[in-house]
Design brief:
This protein folds into four domains: 90 residues, Zinc finger, CHC2-typedomain (DNA Primase, Chain A, Alpha-Beta Complex), CATH 3.90.580; 112 residues, DNA primase, catalytic core, N-terminal domain (DNA primase DNAg catalytic core, N-terminal domain, Alpha-Beta Complex), CATH 3.90.980; 100 residues, Dna Topoisomerase Vi A Subunit, Chain: A, domain 2; 92 residues, no CATH class. The protein is 48% helix and 13% strand. The chain is built from 22 helices and 14 strands. A five-stranded antiparallel β-sheet has the order 1-2-3-4-5. A hairpin with a 4-residue loop joins strand 3 and strand 4.
Length: 458
Amino acid sequence: MNFDKIKSVVSIVDVVQSYGITLKKVGKQYTSLSPFQQETKPSFFVLPEKNIFKCFSSGHGGDVIKFVALKENVSYTEAARILSERYNIPLDEAEKYKKEPTHFKRQIATYLSNKLVNTTNAEEYLYLKKRFSFIAADDLNNIVKKFMIGLWNKQVRQDLITLYGEKRIRYLRFPKTENNSFIVLPIIENRKIITFMFRTIHEDAEYKYIYSAEPDKSLVDTIYNYDVHDQNIEIYVTEGIFDTIALYGIGIKNVVSLLGLNISSKKLSKLNKYTVVNLVLDTDRSGYKASLKAAQYFMLQNKVVYLLLNTPYKDVDEAIKANVYNKETISTKKQLITTHIYTRRYRTMESEIQYKQWIKKVINSISDKDVRYLYNRSIYEVLKQWKRQDVNSFDLKQLLLSLTTSSLKLALSYIVDVIDERERYNMLQHASSDKTEDEINKYIIDLIFYGLGFSQCS
């Protein structure tokens, strides 16, 4: 492969910026926070004259191909292929590439998908039809073909052996088929099949999901349906493959799957190219915990984060079938992460304080002042919506004597820590020194009860 041609044609500045990394020009070079790990002071440098980069905090450095290899967690050669496709640079080894395992896996996936589409009476196809009953038959077939969803059973295995030979099929290490059949879900990232996942349709099976046991293959940093070429500024992030397919089925095309809840920083960093991140993970305890972990990561990357809960349902397809949302209403069902934290119901006051202190700490660590203001403003808007209690029957002395109560401490913390500096400044202008002491006291009580009333109602 002509690596030198790629390095001479492709601008490293353009490639770095395509991953959502903001570069600041300093003299003849560019600088930014490290795209490989979290830091507070910029240690990442791009030198356009030499078309190279250096990250002092992580120790990484090299040319434009090396940068893509690190960001995509692929080999140097595969990174070159990604860039050659993106910038339409011809490959010298096109014929050799067709013989490599990557091309062979796509051939297998296409064959298995055609088997499924042409066997509509198979249990596996009927399972998909029932699970995604909100998708029209023709649309479902198109989705099966797009994602190369296939059928794997004893007969299909024998057919493939006849076509390609037992040795090549055995190398794929697909699960045994003596008494089993599966729905095949190719794990696709950057339009490339990484490996295969097999889903049994029998709910009482010991293992519902089985991966093809290929050597040296890890999915820890893989994102299903992620495409580095995607030009959208907004992305929907789901937990499982079927969740992604469900959203795609109602017309949400910009959707990916984290392939479970093993969320690595390297995996999340691939999504930094998006400005708006919609988290649609499962609504069980582990899914919610993962949502908050991902939300914190993206907030600290100056992203706008929304949460879409399928409550009272766990999975996306169940929520869609129950008409919780569809393509037209989905935007009204998602909540800004701060709005969610400040409007959800908590079992205990201690839990409420813990979550709200956590979100305040995250907001205060956001470097972009406009994004920080957006989150703070959303909290202030929530507080304004709650009806103020009648404060005429209270006096400031009584309230101050109650400072030991956790609810009042929480209410006061809204005033001191939560409300954005600009909003707080505007509010305090009303309590200027030319007002009477009674007016100032009433204003302070009013502020306290904005928070206190909300706190007691949450």
